[in-house]
């Protein structure tokens, strides 16, 4: 595989001054590409389709295509093509460790279906993997990319596996939700910082220490600490000056209803002596309580002091994945149509940025135009269908009115769907 592990070279330095060329060589020539897949001819020899879910007839087929709308019909990728199916495919690259290196994981993904629930993420795997058996249970090192489900989940996953446990990023990173191609980039640096980019724009960044719970916390509340006996944490106390008014307890809760009258047909002998029904007493104010005042001795809420966590042991290799060896897609899709392209595993964010510009960046405007054209055509088809079915009704009397109605039908149907979803 010539594309793997290739070193970039300045191809034509004649056009740039020597100084610029030198600085470019210094900044670019060290770029290492561990894996790059643009899904040109021959891609099938580099990727292994898993047999996962095949015997249950639940393994979906990949379509090698540029999709229904694109910026270049000759630039193909792989697209999920069957609804309600599992998808698993992977490619191997020469094993490497990202120790002392920046790790860049990037790919383009387009959800041509209006994705309402499904993933568009990829995985990096380590060690030895039986690619024919690659599936949902296969351990992975990094899972990264968009995930959409209903209105609540529209996020970029960044799951790191540490000590055999998958850890989700704690920060919310919204993903793109339209039907166009987007480039997702994950950058992990040897200083344990990371960045997440969408379409070459940084959307999130921070540290592995703070944004994932990979290690136990550095500081904990001192479990030995106790609240001092004389610690007054009552913010308000009953006012010692406040006294119960005299006669307060003599006010009855209920009083006889003075408006009630003995019924005319009341028979004292048969019905017993008549007494007026009772009603709540408007004078009654409930049990007396002294009013509250600010406690002059209030010391605030007691908090245990923080101490160094004895279980915390720093790991200077927190960011290191020592045996990265495969890239894969493993998905469940209710509605198919997700197209992957331009997969990159590298050590150079600048190289990744250039690749994104050369692929997604060059094509995005044409793709958007093609998408809008396709949308317009579907709208017209829907309209034509509506008029056709009208004609079939043979209802010529108020055909004009019907036409008007039908024009609004697609919209109102959509509105209904929205209401139901919420
Ligand atoms: C593959 O994608 C193309 C473009 O969207 C489409 O025309 C074709 O029907 C798809 N093939 C399959 C088998 O889904
Ligand atoms: C690794 O996981 C095991 C089992 O869950 C745990 O006992 C151990 O403390 C963990 N080590 C680190 C460094 O997190």
CATH architecture of the domain at 36-214 and 316-375: Sandwich
CATH topology heading of the domain at 36-214 and 316-375: Jelly Rolls
Q: How far is it from the N-terminal to the C-terminal residue, by CA? A: 50 Å
Q: What is the share of helical residues?
A: 10-25%
Which class do the helix and strand fractions yield? alpha+beta
Strand content: 25-35%
List cofactors, ions and other ligands: 2-acetamido-2-deoxy-beta-D-glucopyranose
Poorly predicted runs are 1-16, 390-422
What is the CA-atom radius of gyration, in angstroms?
A: 35 Å
- Whole-number average pLDDT? 86
Shape: elongated
The number of helical segments is: 6
Biggest sheet statistics: 8 strands, antiparallel
Order of secondary-structure elements = HEHEEEEEEEEEEEEEHEEEHEEEEEHH
For the secondary structure, the number of strands is: 22
Protein name: Calreticulin
Subcellular location: Endoplasmic reticulum lumen
Organism: Penstemon davidsonii
InterPro entries: Calret/calnex, Calret/calnex_CS, Calreticulin, Calreticulin/calnexin_P_dom_sf, ConA-like_dom_sf
Structure, explained:
- The chain has 422 residues and is α+β, with helices and mostly antiparallel strands.
- Among the domains are: 1-30; 36-214 and 316-375, Jelly Rolls.
- The protein is 22% helix and 30% strand.
- The protein is built from six helices and 22 strands.
- It has helices at residues 18-28, 43-46, 208-211, 268-271, 349-393, 399-421; strands at 33-37, 47-49, 62-65, 77-80, 85-96, 103-111, 117-119, 122-126, 142-149, 153-162, 165-168, 181-188, 193-198, 201-207, 219-221, 236-238, 254-256, 278-280, 292-294, 306-308, 324-333, 338-346.
- Strands 1, 3, 4, 6, 12, 13, 14 and 22 form an eight-stranded antiparallel β-sheet that branches. Strands 2, 5, 7, 8, 9, 10, 11 and 21 form an eight-stranded antiparallel β-sheet that branches. It has a two-stranded antiparallel ribbon with strand order 15-20.
- A hairpin with a 2-residue loop joins strand 13 and strand 14 (201-207).
- Helix 5 (349-393) packs across helix 6.
- It is elongated and about 105 Å long.
- Mean pLDDT is 86; it is low at 1-16 and 390-422.
- The structure holds 2-acetamido-2-deoxy-beta-D-glucopyranose (NAG) (2 copies).
- Residues 63, 65, 67-68, 81 line the site of one 2-acetamido-2-deoxy-beta-D-glucopyranose.
């Amino acid at each position: 595989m010539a594309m793997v592990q290739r070193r970039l070279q300045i191809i034509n330095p004649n056009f740039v001054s020597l100084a610029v060329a030198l600085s470019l060589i210094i900044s670019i020539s060290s770029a290492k590409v561990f894996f790059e897949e643009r899904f040109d001819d021959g891609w099938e020899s580099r990727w292994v389709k898993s047999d996962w879910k095949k015997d249950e007839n639940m393994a979906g087929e990949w379509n090698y295509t540029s999709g229904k709308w694109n910026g270049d019909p000759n630039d193909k990728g792989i697209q999920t093509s069957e609804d309600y199916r599992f998808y698993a495919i992977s490619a191997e690259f020469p094993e490497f460790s990202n120790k002392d290196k920046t790790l860049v994981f990037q790919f383009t993904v387009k959800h041509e279906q209006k994705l309402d629930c499904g993933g568009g993420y990829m995985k990096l795997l380590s060690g030895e993997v039986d690619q024919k058996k690659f599936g949902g249970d296969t351990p992975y090192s990094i899972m990264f990319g968009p995930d959409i489900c209903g209105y609540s989940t529209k996020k970029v996953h960044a799951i790191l596996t540490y000590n055999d446990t998958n850890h989700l990023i704690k920060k919310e990173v919204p993903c793109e939700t339209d039907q166009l191609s987007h480039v997702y980039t994950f950058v992990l640096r040897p200083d344990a910082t990371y960045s997440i980019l969408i379409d070459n724009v940084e959307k999130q960044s921070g540290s592995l220490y703070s944004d994932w719970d990979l290690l136990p916390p550095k500081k904990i509340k001192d479990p030995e600490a106790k609240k001092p006996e004389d610690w007054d944490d009552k913010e308000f106390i009953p006012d010692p000056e406040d006294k119960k008014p005299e006669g307060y307890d003599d006010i009855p809760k209920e009083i006889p209803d003075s408006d009630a009258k003995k019924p005319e047909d009341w028979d004292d002998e048969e019905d017993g002596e008549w007494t007026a029904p009772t009603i709540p007493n408007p004078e009654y104010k409930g049990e007396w309580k002294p009013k509250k005042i600010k406690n002059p001795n209030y010391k605030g809420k007691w908090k245990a002091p923080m101490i160094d966590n004895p279980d915390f042991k720093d790991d200077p290799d927190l960011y290191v994945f020592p045996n990265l060896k495969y890239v894969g897609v493993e998905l469940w899709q209710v509605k198919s149509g997700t197209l992957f392209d331009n997969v990159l595993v590298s050590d150079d964010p600048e190289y990744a940025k250039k690749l994104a510009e050369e692929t997604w960046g060059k094509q995005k405007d044409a793709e958007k135009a093609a998408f809008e054209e396709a949308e317009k055509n579907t709208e017209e088809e829907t309209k034509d269908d509506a008029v056709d079915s009208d004609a079939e009704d043979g209802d010529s009397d108020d055909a004009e009115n019907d036409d008007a109605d039908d024009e609004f039908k697609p919209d109102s149907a959509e509105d209904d769907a929205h209401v139901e979803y919420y």
